[in-house]
Specification:
Two copies of one chain form a homodimer.
Chain A: H1 10-34, H2 38-42, H3 53-72, H4 86-102, H5 105-108, E1 115-120, E2 123-128, H6 129-154, H7 161-165
Antiparallel strand pairs in A: 1-2
Helix pairs in contact in A: 1-3, 1-4, 1-6, 3-4, 3-6
């Protein structure tokens, strides 16, 4: 037995995305309880040249759907970045999870050596499937989810690491 | 071909830990250039009840060495949490990488179904090897590395996501 490419991708992204959606519920409840304009939180950045909360969420979503689509060899669905509210961000996460759930294990399994070319700004970076998943997609995905978590915690939303990790 | 438990663990942790060490170099250089007491950064928290920078680093290290040791079925080496400076934190990372590098692929491979029992505060949580690695160790490890990154960025250290992801 070993780990299949599917096991290391789709269900892992879905699990954390669902946890992320629950973090947004807590953030929204926090705003209601404290009479805070939710847009203050969703537009918050940890530093002026860092991306705001909304983009942390949409990039996490894009990374998950991009990884799953590229490994499966299907077109990456385009989702426009228009979200501003917690409800809209939750809908974006739900749409991402819904797409990922359409991909069957057999579409991803066996993609360890698949050529994946990422367009990162001006340059194209070639990867093999496993290297792309473990070395790029995972750390990139977690980066944006954790940064979103940190933005909420930094602003006083009561969350714990268990909310983020959930039940694996 | 599939992903081995070794491929998804030891080299992944080592890669990110080495990138983390390079982030500390940049943070240290930043403190020197701006005449900032480095202990201000290493003791910084994003919120009063979050852990300080030092603990983000040591927990990331503990998570990596713990995962590798548990999967390999060897005793988890004890490293005391005494680090305060960037140099000490870099030495802690180096010690962690050194331990991980002593573990051979054959010691970890085949541990997908291995019973792993984690002591989390008062309770014991049972996992199977793959579930533990992908569902707990990965997200937990990335959590602390990214939180350390965010602490530095929030304090004006010039880092980019590429410094964190590196060359996978």
């Amino acid at each position: 037995m070993t780990i299949s490419m599917y096991q290391a991708s789709a269900p892992r992204f879905v699990n954390i995305l669902n946890n992320l959606s629950a973090l947004l519920d807590k953030a929204q409840a926090h705003c209601e309880a404290k009479k805070i304009d939710p847009l203050v939180l969703t537009s918050y950045r940890l530093y002026p040249d860092m991306l705001p909360f909304t983009r942390q969420i949409t990039i996490a979503c894009d990374n998950a759907k991009g990884a799953v689509a590229r490994l499966a060899g299907v077109e990456v669905p385009k989702h426009e970045d228009v979200e501003k509210t917690f409800e809209e961000l939750k809908a974006r996460i739900a749409k991402t999870v819904q797409f990922i759930n359409t991909i069957k294990p057999a579409q991803i399994d066996g993609s360890e050596e698949k050529d994946i070319v990422l367009k990162l700004r001006a340059r194209e970076v070639p990867y093999k499937g496993m290297q792309y998943l473990l070395g790029f997609a995972h750390p990139n995905f977690y980066f944006h989810v954790v940064t979103a978590y940190n933005i909420l915690r930094h602003n006083g939303v009561e969350l714990g690491k268990a909310d983020y990790i959930g039940t694996p």
